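Final report, results section. Input specification for complex C-07:
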Amino acid sequence: MIRKYIALLRMKYIEMLAYRLATFVWMTGAITQPLITMFVWMNIHPEESDSFVFYFMAVIFVERMTSAWDVWELDREIREGTFSNLLLRPLHPIHWAIAENIIYKWLFAVILVPVWVVAATFWPALRPHMTASQIMLFLMAVVLGAALRFLLSYSCGLLAFWMTKVAAVYGVIDVISLFLSGRIAPLEMLPPALREWSEWLPFRYMISFPIEIATGAADGGELARGFAIAAGWMMALIGALQWLWKAGMRKNQAVGG
Amino acid sequence: MNMRRYGRVFREFFRACLVEELEYRSEFFGNFIASFFGIAIALLTVHIFFYQTDRLGGWTYGEVLVLLGVFNTLRGWIDFALRPNMPRLLEHVRRGTLDYILTKPVDSMFYVSFRHLVFWRLIDVALGIGVIGYGLYVERYVPSAADVLMFFVLMTASLLLIYSLWMMLMTTSFWVVRIDDLSFIFDSFFDTARFPGSMYRGAVRFVITYVLPAVLITNTPALALLGKWSMVAVLAALAVAMLFLWASRRFWRFALRFYTGAGG
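Structure output:
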């Protein structure tokens, strides 16, 4: 399995290099919205400017590290029928998607971490104050967030076996996550009712939770509870994905004849 | 350019696209919902910001709503007339089919920017106007006739500016053919215009006020409708719009020379 993965990773790496420019543009595409939101909050609470700078830069970083694009890929592949080609290969298609995610996020990290380090030397607000255990927990939370987003995106993509408007469904989910994952506002700035919701839904654990660990906002019992809820969602999404996969395969054969 | 003839050509584009769109009537309802959803989200966002404050860059809640309405209206126009044409030009350049357009007896820049229209996006224009009205109601301000006149003049200048910036971006497709869609670059920049320019700080504020005048595009019409306009600002906006239009025209011509050269 490991040998297979190495081969997969190498292939995806070459594929990525072939579309360097598109990859780069695509990577930088998602930064303006958090930046604008950062300016809004700096304007509302000027005295906390530094913490907002750190928070929204972290949002950009974590958002890139956990981002998921599989829903659009699956939607297109299933609709156009090219998904059948993937099914014929000896390895489950999800491994191709996982390998792609690993490669792209590795690239994001390789580019973004040095950028952060350089920026932090000039801009004290960006210097993190984290203990070794905080760093470990932060990394764990990022991986967990990436897994959650990937599973959600992939499960939604599988819905394309039944419906044609999958991208629209995912669009709605994405907008909900905009508020509840901490991209529009740090969650503590939200009205209490929304904050309550954000604790129990998976979106907080996709972006906000790792940042809360990094800033020290979440620790002790809060931390354990967060990991527990996120792990619960991960189990639920894995179950959903497996069920959708089986049902989708049956449906696919029925259409294919 | 012969304006009458171009008016007639545009009407033909309009008719052809309407016929095309009426074939997919069932999509209309879904699109309608999507537009409502979009504006609801925008309003909720503003609401969340004003949950913590009563001023944003010196603008009150009602004023920010008027601004949001102007933003939505302008974006509706972009999505109606400009956005649908972007991927098609990229496709034309990539496959060399731009030749056919260049041989048509109509201005090529006009053709590539208006050939395809997406009508349901006009819902966003209507919703934007609704939000403007609501913002004025919240603000308890009734615009005078002069305010409204200046608003329309400035909206025209804004549309010209948007068209020019959009066209310049689209023209770069002669060099950057690998990317499917450049429009998100425009969106990234235009999103900054959703909020008061006075909210931004430092270099960002300078760039979006003077270099890429996002602030000019949305803030000045909104301010005009709120009765805060000056003749100098209006004339300046018109002058800037003309300047950008001229520049985009020149850039298109320049790119065409490049295209012919490459095509051999």
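Residues 231-263 of chain B form the longest helix (33 residues). DSSP finds twelve helices and no strands in chain B. This concludes the modelling results for the funded period.
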